[in-house]
Amino acid sequence: MMTPHDAFSVGSGFSMSISSSTNLRSSGCSSPISATFERRLEAVDHTRRNNVSFEQTKEKIRKMLDKVELSVSAYDTSWVAMVPSPSSQNAPLFPQCVNWLLENQHEDGSWGVNYHKHQSLNKDMLSSTLACILALKKWGTGERQISKGLQFIELNSASVTDETIEKPAGFDIIFPGMIEYARDLNLVIPLGSEVVDALIQKRDLDLTSESFSKGKEAFLVYVLEGTRKIKDWDLIVKYQRKNGSLFDSPATTAAAFTQFRNDGCLRYLSSLLQKFEAAVPTVYPFDQYARLSIIDTLESLGIDRDFKNEIRSTLDETYRCWLRGDEEICLDLATCALAFRLLHSHGHDVSYDPLKPFAEESGFSDTLEGYLKNTTSVLELFKASQSYPHESALKEQCSWTKQYLEMELSNWPITSVQEEYLKKKVEDALSFPSYASLERLDHRRNLLSGSCVESTRVMKTSYRFPNDFSSDILKLAVGDFNFCQSIHGEEMKRLDRWIVENRLQELKFARQKLAYCYFSGAATLFSPELSDARISWAKGGVLTTVVDDFFDVGGSKEEMENLIDLVEKWDLDSVPDYCSEQVKIIFSVLRDTILETGEKAFIYQGRTVTHHIVKIWLDLLKSMLREAEWSSDKLTPSLEDYMENAYISFALGPIVLPATYLIGPPLAEKTVESSEYNQLYKLMSTMGRLLNDVQGFKRESAEGKLNAVSLHMIHQQDNRSKDEVVESIKDIAERNRRELQKLVLEEKRSVVPRECKEAFLKMSKVLNLFYRKDDGFTSNDLMTVVKSVIYEPVTLQDESLT
To answer: Is Secreted among the key words of this record (predicted)?
Structure first.
């Protein structure tokens, strides 16, 4: 037989015997070490929550969710400053913007970003500086500032044509357009005639060489301030939003109002200045994407549980906006995809309709984001396509976005820190798909890379949301990860002691898999309050491995039947009749563990569930005996008989099902007996069994054992090859995974609490991760990931937190 733990095979296992002065009783939930540990946990948690810095950081993040602060854009402010008053072409409509430009020039003569001063942002700063110079020159003010700005441009002129430096969106169109505007103002830009001519020639070539498309049309409107050549308002108005803006861009909208005097544009600009007074952001409104990004970051670092109320409130508001088709969500591709994914994962009933136009790559190409080759938007579409794979259109979306991202990775020029972070995000998304990723591994990887907290983006200019976000959230997440890890280490000590006290190490036939059994729980059910569920999960994993080896190689038929008889009778009042010492050891630890879990579950559930846990174990033992009899009698079952037995013998029942009682929400007996609960179990186990059988086919065939692959080949009618059979079984496993995911995310008709359903999905992720490779995880792979989750604290250099 082959259980989930065969994926963890590493010779003699990963031994972790740690002595303790306090003994853990083999039964009961109120052992001295348990009580001591619980008091210690409460003390540590109390200290954590009374840490002033810790609470201040959390409060700061809560405020970020409540009120998003965007960095101001000197570039966009300059274009708003250039808007003339309707009553006089010789006076600015927004003089406060002109004053802001006069007062906010940097010491080096530049305007623009004042964070991450890095060469990679030079084109951004040159573009912002030139725009500010034009605004001041237009109104005949700031002669000293203009002079300093021109000096900055001259000193950094080499960056204009340096192709290794990241370009803001539309730079090749807007920058030469601003140079031409400077000529109209009799202002000489110190770049040299050859450079200027080359820039203008390239701009003209770009505008005329490509065939016309919807994406290009949107782009030309988006960079209106740089072209000043579109004279047809009917073309532009197609992109005007209900708030009066064009693409929510202050710069584009200011250029449109200056040229066309549209009332909607004026309304947008006026509302913008009422809110921001003197300096505007580069995109507005932007609250939805910023808030959703913060939630996504909190979840990707594993600290979202500290902000449950704020997250629920934010997503409820986002859902209301989604239902009314709010343009801030529906007209921004990245926001729409991110909202879809988060709302769906939190149980909101969201339609795929807003994303349907992007089921194929051609739909993406017709957008502004598509023309700009916006990788962030494609990445969000890829992640959204994985969140609910039952829509056929989402499958198509997943396919093309995956291919697109893979192509981007193959030829990715790293021109900035931001590009490096984005590349890392793409690599992780492709390497660790959501259906095969364990949360704690993701959290650690995200903490060490820092990519998930990088909040700087570059469109026409760079912007950041919210300010100082990265440092705060990283410090909080690192502290939380290490706090949880310290608890995991304590639990491992208790479990190691439990094995010794229950004499499991004396069963020479049994594989020692404690570390891996515990790891699969700690990497998914990681938070401190889930300690009982983790312990139950780990003990279930250890004991199912022992029982599997007992029925496979360690026990005689008499011993197997004796063990089943003892569990079936479940007589706790008389002395058990053991036929061997092996049976005594196994039954004793099974009995004590079942009773312990039942006592703990009673505290959570307020009712007795021990009878159900006994039945779970009895079903497993009987299914294993049946397989042992098939093998000893050399019988070939039908594929249907095999699978009806094999999903139980795969041995996930004693691991996952008892743990659902210890997660928190009440599970009524009718819920546990419901078709939904049992379907969750069957889908999870069937998927795992099929993946396992594909993995173990060669080994089990050599041993003369049957599994799903060999039985398909024996009973098939169409003479398919082994490889074709394997692929068809993989497809069946994938369908089961998708059905499981759909059932877990279903809210309307569900009777099983979401937190409990998640346990089934978490186990499916464990299985998909370890069976993704054709040859499974290697010993070194497993040792590395186990240690990283349970034993190795996260440490970051100071510069990583700034």
So the answer is: no
